[in-house]
Amino acid sequence: MIQLCGFSLSNYYNKVKFFMLEKGIAFEEVQVMTHSPEESVLSCSPLGKVPFIRTPHGALCESQVIVDYLEAAHPNPALLPSDPFEAAKQRELITFIELHLELVARELYGQAFFGGTVSEGTKARAHKLLVNNIAAFKRLASFGPYVGGDSFGMADCAAWVSLPLVAMASKAVLGEDLLAAGGIDWKPYAKLVGERPAAVKVAADRKADQERIALLKAQG
Fold this sequence. Notes:
The protein has helices at residues 11-23, 39-42, 63-73, 84-105, 109-113, 120-140, 154-174, 178-181, 186-194, 197-218, and strands spanning 2-6, 27-31, 52-55, 58-61. It has 220 residues and is an alpha+beta fold. It has 2 domains: 2-73, Glutaredoxin; 84-217, Glutathione S-transferase Yfyf (Class Pi), Chain A, domain 2 (Up-down Bundle). The protein has a 4-stranded mixed β-sheet with strand order 2-1-3-4, with helices on one face. Strand 1 (2-6), helix 1 (11-23) and strand 2 (27-31) form a beta-alpha-beta unit. The longest helix is centred in the middle third of the chain and has 22 residues, at 84-105. It starts with a strand and ends with a helix.
């Protein structure tokens, strides 16, 4: 059985988990924290990043590599269109979401979610990039009602776990939900996708972990 390694507070872990649940792929979850120095982790994910998977053929890291492999290895139900161009359009959306939106907003997470502080320079840089990149993303995304059109697909596994973080981090640190300000009405989309049974499972597990960690911190 495939082992999915990581932890449920990671949006990239949840992207892969959501994808696997939607595909009906049997897997076992193994909790691994990011940047573990253990050789058993580094032999699978050399930078110590999560998620990674262990398969009968070996290990794979990087979330997009993982879902592409799983789509090829388990083609039914398909979460990529059979048409090569339309499949590429799904991957194009994923790249924009993860590289041009989430990765930029990630610089704000320390202050938005973990009680830290980011510099004014970081705020200014993130604001400028997000405004520009959200406008570009809006040209690609259809939300009709799914991010790539009328069918749920691979891009939705990335969008649903990352777009809310971009919105929440920008509002918390920059004072404005830049996704909404950029004309992307993401909340109805998040609600729609969030009603899928696989998404309900992912969200419940994430919430349980958040509550468990909060309790541990309260106990000192």
